[in-house]
Design a protein that fits this description.
Elements (H helix, E strand, L loop, with lengths): L6 E3 L2 E4 L2 E4 L2 E4 L2 E5 L3 H13 L3 E5 L2 H10 L5 E5 L7 H9 L8 E6 L4 H4 L7 E4 L4 H9 L1 H4 L4
Parallel strand pairs: 5-6, 5-7, 7-8, 8-9
Antiparallel strand pairs: 1-2, 2-3, 3-4
Length: 151
Amino acid sequence: MRAVVDSFEHGIVSRGDRKYHGSVWSTLMNILLVDDYRATTEVLADVARSMGHAVSQAYSGVEALVVTTGEGPFDLILLDIALPDISGHEVCLRLRASERYASRRIVSLSAHVDLCDHFDMSCFDGHLLKPLALSEFESLLSDRNQAHKSS
């Protein structure tokens, strides 16, 4: 039986939401990007999609909470700290309180290097600083094993 291939890029065959690496089909990550600065979200979404991941976007804390209730669960959430309505820290704490996101990977995104002075950042699994190097973001997306802390 011959498989139908949707695309072939960078030596990786993809079909639907799965990617073929060597001899194994792997399911891609479902990612949520949360940042009120739309240009940042759009660029990161383009990079993640080019790597074959499914991406949803939210531009406020409330929107992130609504999206996580309906969609997902997301394998990885990249969450800006300085959102206009609810801080990313508060969003993270609310997500961690739910069974659905208690063990999912949530990474903070901020331009502020002194976050630990203002918040207990232990609810996050990692921290990325703006401006974000694309290589750093691509590395985060490539590490599927880290995306599922509970797997």
